[in-house]
């Protein structure tokens, strides 16, 4: 069980899923899902909301689990975490491809990459469709965390394709 040089497409897939992992961690943890400005007592303050906390100026507060959060928001949180966990699983399998000679591992990595992409798709699509109730578009724009999740989705699809390509090229 030593290191073996995999097909170049597998390496590209590993890089794609690794970057998707980093993007998803930032997307889940940071406060940049909705960004905007609010006026309080004649002062304009930058405001950001994430999945777990929100910041106004220099102070941040947790978005409580005990609060009466809408179901769609809980679903976005759930799919964000599930997507992150599936990406981790895909990353582990992709690394194993370099050390184990098993013809099923690239297919398992591809399936995991596509499942992760599906989770991320649900995450950002539901947020984009339902956010008006939580962060109205007149005040808030979609932020960098939303963008990172969309790019992570595209990287997961690219990784899945890269893991499948060697099977067809022989």
Query: What fraction of the residues are assigned to beta strands by DSSP?
Result: 5-15%
Counted by DSSP, the helix tally is 4
Please, what is the oligomeric state? single chain
- Tally of strands: 5
Largest sheet: 5 strands, antiparallel
Q: What low-confidence regions span 5 or more consecutive residues with pLDDT below 50?
A: none
Gyration radius, rounded:
19 Å
Q: Give the class from helix and strand content and strand pairing.
A: alpha+beta
User: What gross morphology would you assign?
Assistant: elongated
- Report how far apart the termini are: 22 Å
Membrane topology: Multi-pass membrane protein
Keywords: Membrane, Transmembrane, Transmembrane helix
Subcellular location: Membrane
Transmembrane segments: 7-35, 78-100, 107-129, 141-165
Keyphrases for this structure?
about 170 residues; alpha+beta; 5-stranded antiparallel sheet; about 60% helix; elongated; PMP22/EMP/MP20/Claudin; transmembrane; PMP-22/EMP/MP20-like
Structural account:
Its main location: membrane. It is found in: Membrane. Pfam families: PMP22_Claudin. It is a multi-pass membrane protein. One of its GO terms (cellular component) is membrane. With 170 residues, the chain is an alpha+beta fold. 59% of the residues lie in helices and 15% in strands. The chain is built from 4 helices and 5 strands, in the order αββββααβα. A 5-stranded antiparallel beta sheet has the order 4-3-2-1-5. A hairpin with a 2-residue loop joins strand 1 (34-40) and strand 2 (43-49). Helix 1 (8-29) packs antiparallel against helix 2 (71-97), helix 1 packs antiparallel against helix 4 (144-169) and helix 2 (71-97) runs antiparallel to helix 3 (105-130). The protein is elongated. The two termini are 22 Å apart. The model has no long low-confidence stretch (mean pLDDT 89).
């Amino acid at each position: 069980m030593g290191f073996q040089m995999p097909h170049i497409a597998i390496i590209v897939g590993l890089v794609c899923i690794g970057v998707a992992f980093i993007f998803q961690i930032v997307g889940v943890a940071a406060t940049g899902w909705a960004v905007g400005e609010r006026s309080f007592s004649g002062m304009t303050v930058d405001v950001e909301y994430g999945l777990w906390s929100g910041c106004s100026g220099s102070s941040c507060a947790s978005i409580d689990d005990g609060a009466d959060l809408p179901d769609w928001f809980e679903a976005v949180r759930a799919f964000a975490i599930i997507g992150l966990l599936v990406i981790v699983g895909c990353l582990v399998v992709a690394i194993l491809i370099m050390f184990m000679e098993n013809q099923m591992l690239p297919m398992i990595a591809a399936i995991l990459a596509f499942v992760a992409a599906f989770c991320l798709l649900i995450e950002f699509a539901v947020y984009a469709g339902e956010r008006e109730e939580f962060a109205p578009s007149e005040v808030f724009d979609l932020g960098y965390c939303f963008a990172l999740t969309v790019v992570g989705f595209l990287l997961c699809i690219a990784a899945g394709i890269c893991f499948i390509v060697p099977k067809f090229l022989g």
